[in-house]
Design a protein that fits this description.
With 352 residues, the chain is of the alpha/beta class. It has 13 helices and 14 strands. The longest helix has 17 residues. The protein binds S-adenosylmethionine. Its EC number is 2.1.1.-.
Length: 352
């Protein structure tokens, strides 16, 4: 399938407004690349595994790409989009050079293009993420390797939120824990938890593309006996009291705006608890999802945990830290640790 790819070189300051403008002009998807996006974790903490910069976007700038179906007239898109970018200056938002170009791309090539930037990455003391197509020999004692092909799912390990969750898991898994990973994406946190010593993991995601990717990665790491992947949210899984709770039941669907999901199990229908691979309540729940969604299910997480259990959560942009802290506290959690990387925050919270 062919797509039109509209590219603009702009500023980090304008990136959110510009991606909205791209959607308003009919984009089916938008990607944002900031300076050094893919290599910061590696550089800041664990030294150089690779010395090649992963992108050469200057500090403070961003490259935004919008994807339009082949049938869309790009002349019309440009006629709508270009003046609106310039209008931003009038609102005090600087779009920088605002260099705009477009080309037609083949979906297959585009779907695999990112692979050249994804290299083995030592993400924590013990965990290294290895793309399946790269050669890698462990370099230090006790190093565990996550074999990964994320496909189109989120979760390469290069995003600060994934790294923060993996490090928090490493800090808190002592061996034998049962874990639920809500919003598993590529399955990276589920596999990481197992390699760190968990007994079993139940990995949930609402997106069927993520579920398929997570299942593939579980197989790649030969953990199919210990990780169960389900297309579900947490509330559907818990059923009973939570599913009957009208407040949560009303709020949950709005927690997934814009999801391209089959939603086969996202209407809070209880999931059979026979084949979960873990016994509720569990010792650890990890969820790397946006703050706006996290705050909607802190009560459910609390119910899913044993007393003394831990909730590790990220996906929280820095300006939403207070919102999540308040929701965690309100649900009865004690905040044990707050960690930060770049503009992102992770919480480790404990159930009394
Ligand atoms: C940011 S990705 C995290 C992927 C991976 N766990 C990581 O840490 O890199 C968030 C994932 O959560 C899923 N998701 C969003 N809302 C959800 C919900 N309410 N229940 C389960 N999964 C959800 C999305 O489909 C997406 O795959």
């Amino acid at each position: 399938m062919l797509w039109h790819e509209l590219t603009i070189h702009t500023t980090e300051e304008a990136q959110e407004m510009i991606s909205n403008l791209m959607y308003e002009a009919g984009a089916g998807g938008v990607s944002i690349e900031e300076s050094g996006t893919l290599n910061k974790v590696r550089d800041t903490r664990y030294g150089e595994l690779y010395d090649q910069p992963l992108n050469d976007i200057p500090e403070g700038e961003a490259v935004i790409k919008g994807y339009y179906s082949e049938s869309v007239s790009m002349e019309e898109v440009l006629a709508e989009f270009t003046p609106r970018v310039e209008e931003l200056r009038g609102f005090g938002i600087n779009p920088g050079k605002a260099i705009i170009s477009w080309q037609t791309v083949d979906e297959d090539e585009w779907a695999h293009a990112w692979k050249q930037y994804f290299k083995p990455l030592r993400v924590s003391e013990r965990l290294t993420i290895k793309p399946t197509w790269e050669e890698y020999t462990p370099t230090h004692p006790g190093e565990a390797i996550i074999e990964l092909d994320p496909g189109m799912a989120f979760g390469t390990g290069t995003h600060p939120t994934t790294a923060l969750c993996l490090r928090a898991l490493e800090k808190n898994i002592t061996g034998g824990e049962e874990v639920i990973d809500v919003g598993t994406g590529s399955g990276i946190l589920a596999v990481g938890a197992m390699l760190l010593g968990a007994k079993s993991v139940l990995a949930l995601d609402l997106d069927p593309v993520a579920v398929e990717s997570a299942r593939e990665n579980v197989l790649l790491n030969r953990l199919e006996d210990r990780i169960t992947v389900k297309e579900s949210d947490l509330l559907s899984l818990l059923g009973g009291e939570g599913a009957a709770d009208s407040a949560a039941g009303d709020m949950w669907p709005s927690a997934r705006p814009g999801h391209t999901l089959s939603d086969s199990n996202s209407h809070n229908e209880p999931v059979s608890q026979d084949s979960l691979g873990v016994t509720l309540p569990v010792k650890i729940v990890v969820a790397n999802i946006l703050a706006e969604i996290i705050v909607l299910f802190t009560d459910d997480v609390y119910r899913a945990l044993q007393p003394g259990g831990l909730y590790i959560t990220s996906g929280i942009y820095k300006d939403k830290e207070g919102l999540v802290e308040e929701a965690l506290t309100k649900s009865g959690f004690d905040i044990i640790e707050v960690s930060r990387e770049e503009d992102w925050v992770a919480f480790t919270a404990g159930k009394r």
